[in-house]
UniProtKB/TrEMBL annotation:
It comes from Paenibacillus phyllosphaerae. It comes from the Bacteria. This is Putative aldouronate transport system substrate-binding protein. Coiled coil: none annotated. Keywords: Signal. Residues 1-26 form the signal peptide.
Length: 536
């Protein structure tokens, strides 16, 4: 993934920890001034194994790792577990009896699994507040209640990684050049949506004289489900609130109406018959190749920043000059295929009962935990928490940016005197994953005020409204046990009904099959869990 030229500055409570840089570097390898000793410095030098988000391996001699080692009197060993295969690589290590001291749990639902395996340490609240005060204060101030999600049976085992940008839902995207060619506008209701997707299918929107286009594919279907208030085609079981209880959205009776629409559209040839295999055909998972290749005219795949068109807002170049932002990801690949292609965002369409929404990712991204072995030495555990606090939530602006982006003046500089934005300097602005190469950005994401230009742009588009979130953000035993098979059962039934292999009337039979396969237990335990959390 190409590094963005500009990185936003967060509000002071939300800043990631960094290193204060001076122009007079002296003999310091990282080019930063010497800082005070850590609180937990008992004179003992600890070896700490550390896991993080990695797109590229961190070298053993990475300069920012060396700086942290000197500052905190530790030897940091970064486990190079590539992100796309993280769980498999981590579990292989665990099977060999190796447990990381700083434990990244990429999938929130896995917190309970790893706690059951006894590879996580209980983190006393007093130790958290003493040795990671900026971190806990930031989460409590900007994501109230989220710290509680890291508890299991009343004890902290995970520190929640909260992504504030997930307040923005997945956009609803159309080929605006197709709309223009057909004299149409982005639809606002389900009836208008139907008119558009039929026109995309049968009125030659790309003008090539061929019958080779469709209205939508799999990701667009979630906008249809959203018009009835629920989400279905997701990687998780999506829970919703109904009658003051948690329910599973895919089981709600209003979904029969959504399926009826989709079944008719599929029969009429409006839905891409390849929807079963998805819109992405490999590579970066947020790319909709069906849309990029001009096969479909609408989608709701990928986050808002995967659809930035050239000039959508102003950013900074390597000289600190304001310039139009470049196209990114889906928008970039689209214009590579067709230089005249354009896109436009539309609202989630409104259904017969006034409901609307598109999929939104959970604010809870993951958990950061402490490995069980580290808990055997309170001094080591305290040192780990202080490093995590320093590299994740330090309120000093210069330290913040330096730990995230490297050495000031070498890797980055402030874009202006206001310190609102930073500019990544050449040649690093052209190096994908350069932060991994220098050992920077090893902390966890903390919630911030979303003051960056990219986020301001997303706000102007109304993407912070009408998102449909999963009402259950953590796991519990029944969900771990039953959800893999339940998800398969859900997908198979929905696909069969959409393609007409099963009638819509079979929906009630599907619900019975789902509940008998563990669905009843999952819903019951979800509500028991919620009630216990509400009491706490």
């Amino acid at each position: 993934m190409r590094m963005h030229m500009i990185a936003k500055r967060s509000g002071w409570l939300l800043l990631l920890a960094m290193i204060l840089v001076t122009s007079a570097c002296g003999d310091d390898a990282a080019g930063v001034k010497e800082a005070s000793a850590p609180l937990a410095d008992d004179g003992q030098r600890y070896t700490i194994t550390w896991t993080m988000h990695l797109n590229e391996a961190v070298p053993e001699d990475a300069e920012m790792i060396r700086y942290l080692e000197d500052k905190f009197n530790v030897d940091l060993v970064v486990w190079n577990l590539e992100n796309n295969n993280y769980e498999a690589l981590l579990d292989l290590k665990l099977a060999k009896g190796e447990i990381p001291d700083l434990f990244r749990i990429r999938q929130p639902n896995d917190l309970l699994k790893y706690q059951d395996l006894q590879v996580l340490a209980e983190i006393p609240l007093e130790m958290l507040n003493t040795h990671a005060p900026n971190l806990t204060r930031t989460i409590d101030a900007n994501a109230p209640g989220y710290m509680e999600l890291g508890k299991i049976e009343g004890s902290y085992y995970g520190i929640p990684v909260v992504n504030p940008s997930n307040k923005f839902r997945i956009p609803v995207v159309y080929r605006s050049d197709w709309l223009d060619n057909l004299g149409l506008k982005p639809p606002t209701t389900l009836e208008e949506f139907e008119k558009v997707i039929y026109a995309f299918t049968f009125q030659d929107p790309d003008g090539n004289g061929k019958n080779d286009t469709y209205g939508l594919s799999s990701e667009g279907m979630n906008v249809v489900f959203g018009a009835f208030g629920q989400m279905v085609f997701t990687e998780q079981l999506y829970f919703a609130w109904k009658d003051q209880r948690l329910v599973i959205g895919a089981l709600q009776p209003e979904m029969k109406n959504a399926i009826a629409y989709l079944q008719r559209w599929y029969k009429d040839g409006v839905i891409d018959p390849e929807f079963v295999t998805g819109e992405n055909k490999g590579g970066y998972k947020h790319l909709s190749h069906a849309f990029i290749n001009g096969r479909i005219g609408m989608t709701s795949m990928g986050n808002y920043y995967h659809w930035t068109q050239a000039g959508d807002y102003l950013t900074f170049n390597a000289r600190g000059e304001e310039v139009p932002v470049e196209a990114s990801f889906n928008a970039l690949e689209l214009v590579k295929k067709n230089s005249k292609a354009k896109i436009v965002f539309g609202p989630p369409v409104t259904g017969p009962e006034g409901k609307s929404g598109s999929k939104a990712y959970d604010m809870l991204m993951s958990f950061t935990a402490i490995g069980a072995n580290a808990a055997k030495d309170p001094g080591k555990m305290a040192r780990i928490l202080e490093i995590l606090d320093y590299v994740s939530a330090n309120p000093d602006l210069d330290e913040n940016m330096s730990m995230k982006y490297g050495v000031q003046g070498e890797h980055w500089m402030w874009a202006g005197t206001s310190k609102d934005d930073v500019v990544i300097l050449p040649p690093y602005n052209e190096r994908a994953n350069y932060t991994n190469q220098i050992g920077a950005n090893i902390g966890m994401t903390v919630p911030d005020a979303l003051t960056g230009r990219r986020e301001q742009w997303a706000s102007t588009l109304g993407l912070d409204k009408n998102g449909i979130y999963n009402a259950m953000q953590v796991s519990f035993p029944a969900l771990i046990k039953y959800s893999p098979e339940l998800i398969k059962l859900r997908n198979k039934a929905y696909i069969s009904m959409i393609t007409g292999d099963r009638p819509v009337a079979d929906f009630d039979t599907f619900v019975q099959e789902f509940n008998a396969a563990g669905g009843d237990q999952v819903v019951e335990d979800a509500n028991v869990w919620y009630q216990s959390q509400a009491k706490e």
